[in-house]
Amino acid sequence: MKTSIDIKDVECNEDILTPEERKDRIGVLNLMVDEGGTLPISKCSKFKTLDSLIKKRKLILDEEDKEIQFAYPVSGLPTSHHITLEDGREYYSMCAIDSLGSYFTFWQDLEIDSVCSTSGEPIKVVVKNGEIVYKSSPDIHCIHVDLNKFDDWSASC
User: Fold this and answer.
1) What are the pLDDT digits (tens) for 30-63?
2) DSSP 8-state class, residue 58
3) pTM, two decimal places
């Protein structure tokens, strides 16, 4: 049984995005992190592919379609998964797996402060150069579950 994956084995779903959409997506992610929460659509006029990113569900809006609440891996709403990037910016990620993958989104070392969804115990993980260099317990494991069974994905992993 395989218990870990190599990042080279992961198929990137960004293949469905054009180069301009990829650039705009990263721009939106950075703006969400800079703003520190949900992002009003009115602040996104410089992103020419915004409508396409919304249609492809790369950006998830609130019920009134006025704010971007989620742009994986960034959550505009608080979750149990707090990320501090090397440049000092902070944000919440959608889930534990998104937290670990955040290095490969922002290409920065980072610290993850999280809470185990089962035990409630605090978890700290430090990622440098794409590798986990510190974890607060040797017994930390990330398990993938079928998220279609949950309304609140960030509370399930």
Assistant:
1) 999 999 999 999 999 999 999 999 998 899 998 8
2) S
3) 0.78
